[in-house]
Design brief:
This protein has 4 helices and 5 strands; from the N terminus they run βββαβαβαα. α3 crosses α4. Belongs to the YqgF HJR family.
């Protein structure tokens, strides 16, 4: 039973999946979406959920630094509701403040070109969201 981590944006959703033991997160792919047009990539997520035998989904919740939710946070909550209703899986929100910045820093330190960073940043952010969640679970 694996956990899937999602970093939800307006144009893409970064996807990561845990190993079978729930210890490590691996980036899978970036799913193209069009939030404005209501194209949320749920068909592709369905394929990935089945392929990886996902039993839970963790979605990054972009909070403001003062712990409030802005428009992006509210959009992620709505996305979480759609995922929960569509796949009948437990969905947890994970405070993702600074996860994209941390992913960018890792990629910069690895000397990844700007063009390549754009292609993998959301997937890397999903890994950081999921790994944070998995690390917290291991201490419970």
């Amino acid at each position: 039973m694996r956990v899937m981590g999602l970093d939800v944006g307006t144009k893409t959703v970064g996807v990561a999946v845990s190993d079978a033991m729930g210890w490590t997160a691996q980036g899978i792919e970036t799913v193209k979406i069009d939030e404005e047009a209501g194209e949320l990539g749920l068909a592709r997520l369905a394929d990935l959920i089945k392929e990886y035998e996902v039993s839970k989904v963790v979605i990054g919740l972009p909070k403001n630094m003062n712990n409030t939710l802005g428009p992006r946070g509210e959009a992620c909550m709505l996305y979480a509701d759609r995922v929960r209703d569509t796949f009948n899986l437990p969905v947890e929100m994970w405070d993702e403040r600074l996860s994209t910045m941390a992913a960018e820093r890792v990629l910069l330190e690895a000397d990844v070109s700007r063009q390549k960073r754009k292609k993998v940043i959301d997937k890397m952010a999903a890994v950081m969201i999921l790994q944070g969640f998995l690390d917290r679970q291991s201490y419970k």
